[in-house]
Amino acid sequence: MERPTRVSLALGGGGARGYAHIGVIQVLQERGFDIVGVAGSSMGALVGGMHAAGALSAYTDWALGLNRVQVMRLLGVPHLTGGAFKADRVLDRMSEMLAGARIEELGIPYTAVATDLMARRPVWFQRGPVDLAIRASIAIPGFFAPVVVNGRVLVDGGIIDPVPMTPLASVPSDLTIAVNLSGEAGPQVPSDDTPDEVPGPELKGLDVVNLSYDAMQDVITRFRLAGYPPDVLVAVPKDSCGMLDFHRAAELIPLGRDLTEQALDGCTPTRAQ
After folding, report:
1. Which entry of 115, 216, 221, 255 is 20 to 30 Å from 184 by CA?
2. Which residues are catalytic?
3. Which of 243, 225, 234 lies closest to 267 in space, CA to CA?
4. Lowest-pLDDT range of 79-88, 91-100, 222-231
5. Coil, helix or strand for 47?
6. pLDDT tens digit sequence for 178-203
C-alpha cells in the first residue's frame, strides 16, 4: 500500500486572513495528505500550533461563532502599553484550548516564528509552551503589545519572515506547501470596517497600518520565497478582508479551501524516493 504524501506546511501571517489556513489544512486532510511539519508566523503560528496540538477543531468551532461585537470585546479597548489592543481574553481562550501543550511534546515538528525587535532577527520557538510561542508570534506592532521573553522584546514574526520556509528544511517530506496571505488582490470578502473604495484623503489610521503592513510583507515574502521556493504556493488575496475581521471565519475558511484545491489541482507533485 502506497504511503500518503508527506507535506511540510509554511503558514504565513496576515491577521484575520489567517482563517484561510484552516481551510488549507482541511483540504489536505480530506485528500489524504500527511502533514508532517508546520512552521508559521503570526496567524500562521496560531493556526499551525492549534493543528499540531490537536486543538484546531475546537478553535474553528469557536471562531465560527464569533460576531463583530464579540471580537471587539475580546480584543479589548486601546491602551498605552505598546499595542493598540489588550487581546487578553482571546489569548486566554486560546491557552485554554491548548491545555498546557508544549512544542517538544507535539506529534509533529512545529516552529512559531517571532521577531526580536532589538536584535532585528528571527526567533524560532521549537521548545516550550505553545501558547507563549503563539503570543510572541502574533504580537503585531500597533495592534498588540510585545512579549518579553528572557529579556528579549518579541513581536510579530511576519515582520522579518512572513512565510517561514527555512524552519522546514530539516523536516523529511515529499511536498512543501506555502500559504501566503499577501497575494495579489482578488475577489473580496466584504468587511464591515473597510469601504469598497478608499481614496487617499479618506484613509483612516487603521487603513494606513493595514496597507503599510501588507506592503512590507509583500516585498519580504517575494524575496524569501524566491530564495527558497515551495513546491506548491497558495496565495490568499491581500484584500480578501481587513486585518482585524476576526468575525469573518465563515467566509475565509471556504476561501482557503477553494484556493488550496485550485493550487493542488494545478500541480503534479513528485514523491521523494
Report:
1. 115
2. 42, 156
3. 234
4. 79-88
5. helix
6. 999 988 876 444 444 443 433 345 55
